[in-house]
Specification:
Elements: H1 2-22, H2 31-41, H3 43-63, E1 69-78, E2 84-87, E3 90-93, E4 98-111, H4 115-182, H5 187-222, H6 245-255, H7 257-277, E5 283-293, E6 304-314, H8 322-388, H9 394-429
Antiparallel strand pairs: 1-4, 2-3, 4-5, 5-6
Helix pairs in contact: 1-9, 2-4, 3-4, 4-5, 4-7, 4-9, 6-8, 7-8, 8-9
Length: 434
């Protein structure tokens, strides 16, 4: 647990500090701002939110069954011939030609052996699953934004290193051309330097292409137009600490949203089984009606008030073994959920152990890379002195400077990997980005 706290505190302080220092830059976006825009404008997230809303509506729908059902009914019927009876030589009409009936019918479920409550619990479990799915999508989008954000910074900083290398090579070409004119160098030296410059320019073009594609992806993620300029504000913060894979795996089992969702599915399966087990239970209702109709003696054409009241019992007798089939379905879902949890735990264990390994590797690289850059800088300083003294050629100096550029690029990559691996470990453990 302490390792997770260290990770969270270090990353949170870095993000918050960086966000504070860059707030004034109107045309730049911090990591926090990028995440906020992604979570605001992503259709995938809106879809999940509507899923929660749909579950909430389903709960309201189910709650409606706790209230009476009231219906109004209006009817008109004309009959013919009119039924009559003869008595003592006289005829008596038993019904009018025109029959009118206006009634309000009401029914209230009184007792159903807990079927309504069981169904309500099941629907609430679906809403919980929808919320947990929303949290999962938010977290995944946040970490995806983080990776894109830092990959763009990495590409931009790599391009700057290439620009410095190109600038240095241009100076060498100018200097070598002067030496060619004075006879102290040959065209071969110029040609070799130009070839190196062309190679570096091609590498820069590749980086620029990668940068452009990543910016397009991030703008799409944030809901930005592709025409908008995207300027990011951030740095690579080196993070060095010890991690313990075993404790982090146990922590991940408690925090990963995938396990939460699988557990939700298991709970829903139990509740579904409870609902279907009550399928064959009877339901008791109170029914009543009140209205006006004609056809009553002594004046058949006059509308008169009338009412009915009673009790209705609905008793299922046979439904084609539907209950048995649904119980079997619920039991299968429950077993599937248990198996899924075990499978997810295996994957999580692998992900955490791999993330720990990657982070440890990047931490080790930081230490060795700093020494490598220092040695490369010393080598360039010595090469410059030897070049001025005429001991080495221009190409030898270029080789030393190229080695320094490569060391700087490696240092940049190691810093980038250190940050990305830290976030990867946070995601593997199940830490939420807030």
């Amino acid at each position: 647990m302490k390792y997770q706290i260290i990770i969270t505190l270090l990353l949170s302080s870095f993000i918050a500090g960086n966000g504070y220092s860059q707030q004034k830059a109107v045309d730049s976006i911090t990591l926090q701002q990028a995440i906020k825009m992604t979570l605001t404008n992503q259709p995938l997230l809106n879809e999940a939110i509507e899923g929660v809303n749909a579950a909430e509506a389903k709960i309201k729908e189910n709650n409606s069954y706790y209230y009476p059902r009231v219906n109004g009914e209006v009817s008109y019927t004309r009959i013919g011939p009119i039924p009559t009876i003869q008595f003592g030589g006289a005829g008596f009409t038993l019904a009018p030609n025109n029959n009118y009936d206006v009634h309000i019918f009401a029914s209230q479920l009184v007792y159903d052996f807990g079927k309504r409550d069981a169904l309500t619990d099941l629907v609430k479990s679906y809403k919980l699953s929808s919320k947990d799915k929303l949290d999962l999508i938010k977290n995944r989008l946040s970490y995806k934004t983080i990776r894109l954000f830092y990959s763009i910074l990495f590409a931009e900083k790599s391009i700057k290193v290439k620009d410095e290398e190109i600038s240095t090579l241009k100076k060498h070409i100018e200097l070598t051309n002067k030496k060619v004119k004075s006879g102290s160098a040959t065209d071969f030296d110029v040609l070799t330097t130009e070839v190196k410059e062309a190679a570096v320019k091609n590498e820069k073009l590749d980086l620029e292409n990668a940068l452009n594609k990543r910016k397009i992806y991030l703008k799409n993620l944030m809901g930005w137009s592709s025409d908008n300029n995207l300027n990011l504000s951030g740095e690579f913060k080196k993070i060095i600490f010890k991690v313990n894979a075993d404790s982090l795996v146990e922590e991940a089992f408690q925090k990963r949203p995938e396990i939460t969702l699988a557990k939700d599915a298991g709970k829903s399966a139990v509740l579904f089984k409870n609902v279907v087990s009550l399928t064959n239970k009877p339901a008791l209702r109170v029914i009543a009606s009140y209205g006006f109709k004609n056809g009553y003696e002594p004046n058949l054409d006059v509308l008169r008030g009338n009412w009915t009241a009673g009790i209705n019992a609905s008793i299922p007798i046979f439904n084609g073994n539907l209950r048995k089939a649904k119980v079997e379905e619920a039991e299968a879902k429950l077993k599937s959920s248990s198996a899924k949890i075990l499978e997810i735990k295996r994957k999580i264990k692998t992900q955490v152990e791999q993330a720990v390994s990657d982070l440890k590797s990047s931490i080790s690289k930081i230490k060795t890379n700093e020494l490598q850059v220092k040695h490369a800088e010393d080598a360039v300083s010595r090469a410059e002195i030897r070049y001025r003294d005429g001991v080495i050629t221009n190409l030898d100096l270029i080789d030393a400077e190229t080695s320094l550029s490569e060391a700087k690029l490696l240092r940049l990559r190691v810093s980038y990997e250190n940050v990305i691996n830290t976030y990867s470990l946070m995601e593997a453990v199940g830490n939420k980005i807030k």
